[in-house]
Amino acid sequence: MQKKVAKALLSIGAVFFRPEEPFTWASGIKSPVYCDNRLILTAPEHRVTVETAIAETVKKEYPECEVLMGTSTAGIAHAAIAAHLLDMPMGYVRSGNKDHGRQNRIEGKLEKGQKVVVVEDLISTGGSVIDVVDALREAGAEVLGIVSIFTYGMQKGIDRLAAANVKNVSLTNFDVIAEVAADEGYIKPEDIARLIKFRNNPSDESWIGAAE
């Protein structure tokens, strides 16, 4: 499944490697990879692959799940489609409370004690998804864990998830996508080491130009 999802994401440019011309994140960090899993929604064939994989992962890893909750905004559509496949309720968690109406942060019906799985599109340092988990726990939900489409596998994210005592299962990950990208000709085989060096320490820019 990991390689099948990786091929899908690469083919539509949802994950795009550019080690020779790094992207600059909002934090200022130079990155050889760009990720936009919203593109999955506009590619029906690959959307079926990804959403089916999310649904199957929920059934396998979290068989007690009662409700799916998407992260705002990128996880909402994926949670909705997977919940439809599973015939399961869904909702989503805003990044903050609304400033009008009932001032909800959690949208959709959620009962105290319900068993919830969070659907996230990607995990890097883990901060935003843990914030969602905390909000659900504060509302009385039992968060079984997370299903994410893609994870960088950064140590900071791994440590944060462990500290929050929350399980994450990703459909695919940085290492698998880098391997598939090399096999499929998106990058050079020698670029893999540079990509892994970035992943292991994003603030160290010595990987830039290392293959030249």
Structure explained in plain terms:
It is a single chain. By secondary structure, the chain is of the alpha/beta class. It contains 7 helices and 10 strands. A 6-stranded mixed sheet has the order 7-6-5-8-9-10, with helices on both faces. The chain has a two-stranded antiparallel ribbon with strand order 1-4. A two-stranded antiparallel ribbon has the order 2-3. Helix 2 (44-61) crosses helix 3 (74-86). The mean pLDDT is 92.
List the helices and strands and how they pair.
Layout (H helix, E strand, L loop, with lengths): L1 H10 L3 E3 L5 E2 L5 E2 L1 E3 L8 H18 L5 E5 L2 H13 L3 E4 L12 E2 L7 E9 L3 H12 L3 E10 L3 H9 L4 E6 H10 L7 H10 L12
Parallel strand pairs: 5-6, 5-8, 8-9, 9-10
Antiparallel strand pairs: 1-4, 2-3, 6-7
Helix pairs in contact: 1-2, 1-6, 2-3, 6-7
List keywords for this structure.
212 residues; two-stranded antiparallel sheet; 7 helices; globular; alpha/beta; six-stranded mixed β-sheet; single chain
In short:
The protein is α/β, with parallel strands linked by helices and 212 residues long. It has helices spanning 2-11, 44-61, 74-86, 127-138, 155-163, 174-183, 191-200; strands at 15-17, 23-24, 30-31, 33-35, 67-71, 90-93, 106-107, 115-123, 142-151, 168-173.
Overall pLDDT, averaged? 92
The number of distinct helices, counting runs of at least 4 residues, comes to 7
- Low-confidence runs: none
Helical content band: 25-40%
The SSE order reads: HEEEEHEHEEEHEHEHH
Tally of extended strands? 10
Output the structural class: alpha/beta
Radius of gyration: 18 Å
Oligomeric state: single chain
**What share of the residues does DSSP label as strand, in percent?**
15-25%
Distance between the termini: 33 Å
Shape: globular
Q: Largest sheet, described in full?
A: 6 strands, mixed
Placed side by side, the strands forming the largest sheet appear as: 7-6-5-8-9-10
